[in-house]
Amino acid sequence: MEKDGERTERTRGTPQGGVISPALSNLFLHYAFDLWMTRTHPDLPWCRYADDGLVHCRTEKEAEALRAELQARLAVCGLQMHPTKTQIVYCKDNRRRRTYPNVKFDFLGYQFRPRRVATAQRKEYFCGYTPAVSPAALKSMRVTIRSLRIPRQTPGTLADIARQINPLFRGWIAYYGRFSRSALGPLVDYVNQKLKAWIMRKYARFRFHKTRASLFLRKLAQNNVDLFVHWQSFGTATFT
Q1: Closest CA to 56 of 134, 125, 129, 135
Q2: pLDDT tens track of the chain, all 240 residues?
Q3: Which of 3, 49, 156, 208 is buried most deeply by CB count within 10 Å?
């Protein structure tokens, strides 16, 4: 349907957001990409989720050759790779120490890049290539929290706010907390800041006293740690 309300008959493709669209997309890419990769490059590990995919190559030359092949393959199928999102990335870590302009990428809400990683005994650290929640995903989660307008919910209680936040955090922690859980720390701090702002608006004695409000919130969290999921998972020691 056009902006003016006029209906236009569709002659190709599927409507964005349609229930059948993801299923048809996966069926098409199964033949256009999955089986093609298995047949033509059985020695290269790869993965795909919907229209996002990764292929692991041994050298930059091999990656460039594969990109050219894949462009040709998709063109035959009436598709094309995203001009800016498609890139060759060097997975730099303790073993791969060369210099390359691109050493990080985002995939399914995670950002993969070189990070300081501890050994199993946590006695030494080394450079590993590991995933953690991406900056874009953190920004999206902050937007979701901001849309709740927590500081303005002063007629309600913290329990009312917890009923809104906890289901969100359970999902975020279950998904993004599997790797580098500490990367969710900035989001936890952001939510606690919103709760502190709620306290300062609700109680007149804290209106112009950020430090007192932080101390009050910390004590409240320590005595009611089960109230919020992020208090249970990340502790209640750091309130600024």
Answers
A1: 129
A2: 566 667 777 777 777 777 888 888 899 999 999 999 999 999 999 999 989 999 999 999 999 999 999 999 999 999 999 988 899 999 999 888 898 999 999 999 999 999 988 877 777 888 899 999 999 999 999 999 999 999 999 999 999 999 999 999 999 999 999 999 999 999 999 999 999 999 999 988 888 888 899 899 999 999 999 999 999 998 876 665
A3: 156
At 189, which helix (H) or strand (E)? helix 185-202
Residues sharing a CB contact under 8 Å with residue 167, sequence separation 6 or more, in sequence order: none
Q: Determine phi and psi for 94, rounding to 5 degrees.
A: -65, -25
pTM here is: 0.85
Token pair recorded at residue 37: 């990769």
Task: Give Cβ neighbours of residue 63 (< 8 Å, ≥ 6 apart).
Answer: 55, 57, 88
32-to-35, 58, 79, 84 alpha-carbon distances in Å: 7, 23, 9, 21
Q: From the DSSP assignment, how many helices (H) and strands (E) are in the chain?
A: 8, 5
Residue 133, helix vs strand vs coil: strand
Distance CA 84, CA 159 (A): 44
